[in-house]
Amino acid sequence: MSKPTMTFTPKNLTLWAGLSLSLMLPLTVLADRTVSYTYTVHGQVETIDGPRVDVTDVTTYGYDENGNRNSITNALNQTTQITAHDASGRPLTIVSPNGLTTTRSYDLRGRMIQQTVSDGTTSRTTDYDYDAVGNLIQVTLPDGNSISYDYDAAHRLTGLEDQLGNRIDYTLDDMGNRLSEQVSDPTGTLTRTKQQVYDQLSQLDQSIDSENHTTDFDYDPNGNLTRTLDANLNPTAQTYDPLNRLSQTTDAKNGLTQYSYDDQDNLTQVTDPTGLVTSYDYDALGNLISLTSPDTGVTTYTYDEAGNRLTQTDARNVTTSYSYDALNRLTGISYPDTSLNVSYTYDQGAHGIGQLTQM
Prior knowledge:
Blueprint: E1 5-9, E2 13-17, E3 35-39, E4 45-49, E5 58-63, E6 69-73, E7 79-85, E8 91-95, E9 101-106, E10 112-118, E11 123-130, E12 136-140, E13 146-151, E14 157-162, E15 167-172, E16 178-184, E17 190-198, E18 204-208, E19 214-219, E20 225-229, E21 235-240, E22 246-250, E23 256-261, E24 267-271, E25 277-282, E26 288-293, E27 297-303, E28 309-313, E29 319-324, E30 330-334, E31 342-343, E32 345-346, E33 356-358
Antiparallel strand pairs: 1-2, 1-3, 3-4, 4-5, 5-6, 6-7, 7-8, 8-9, 9-10, 10-11, 11-12, 12-13, 13-14, 14-15, 15-16, 16-17, 17-18, 18-19, 19-20, 20-21, 21-22, 22-23, 23-24, 24-25, 25-26, 26-27, 27-28, 28-29, 29-30, 30-31, 32-33
C-alpha cells in the first residue's frame, strides 16, 4: 500500500496523491509556497518538506509500535527522541539533540506534577501542585523559590504570592473582569493599586492608577477603541473602515494620520499629519517588496521560498543581503563594505543545539 502524500499551497488549495477525494473546490492561487507532507500507513505525519529549494528542509517524524511519536529529526539532521511514554501516550522521557534529558511525571488525571532537566551532571527539577478541582496552586522552581495561586469558587485566579510573601490580589466582577489589582510587600503594605471599570459588554471603560489618575475609553458598536482620554485630558481618537481596520487616528494636538489597505488587509499607505505619504507594496504572498518613504526614498526587498528576506536595496542602490540555514535561522548579513559583514553561528557551544553561540 502506497503512503499518502499531500501538497499544500497558499490560498487553501490542497492537491492530494495516493488518496481519493470525491470533492475538490476550485480555487485561484495567486502564488506558490509549497509544503509537502507524507504519511504513514496509519495516517500519521511522517515527513514535512518545506518550501525552500536551495536547501533540504525536511522534518521527519518516527513512531513506536503503539503509535506514539518517538523521534523528530529536523532539516539539519538533529534528532529529538521521546524514549518513554505513559499508558496514555504522554511523553515521560525526552532526549534533545544536545544531550539534555527531560523527564516528566503525571498524576492520575494526566496533569504534569514534576519535570526534571538533566545534562548528566546536574539536574533542575520543577514541581507542580494542584487543588482538588484541578487548579494549579503552586509551582516550585529548581532554585527552591515558589509561586502560589489563589482562586475563587468559579476557578478564576484571584491572587498569587511568592515564597517571600510578596502578593498580588485581584477583585473580579461577575463576568470575570478584573476590577482591582493590589500589590503588597511581605509586611502587607500596599505598594501599587489599579482599578478598572467595565461597561455592560465587558469593555474597559475606565482605568485608575495608584495616584488616582484616570484614563477613559470609548468604543464603536463593533468594539473598536475609538477614543482615549488620559489623566491630563489629552484625547486621542481612532476611526475604522467597514472591515474594522484602523483608517485614521487623531492625536491630542488634532494631528490626523490616515491608513489604507489592500484586499489582503496589508497596510499600503500611511499619510501623516503633515500630508507626507509612505507607501507599501506586497507580493501575492504578503511579503513587503517595496517601501516608498519621503525620508528614505524607495527601498525594495526580495525573499526566498519560505518568506525569509534575502535582500534589501535602498534608494542609493545599496544592497544588503541575508542568508539562512535549513531551519530558517539567520546565518549572515552581507554589506557592500565587507568589513561590516555579520555572521551567526549555531550549535557550536556545549549543549547549544538551536541556540545562537557566536556572532
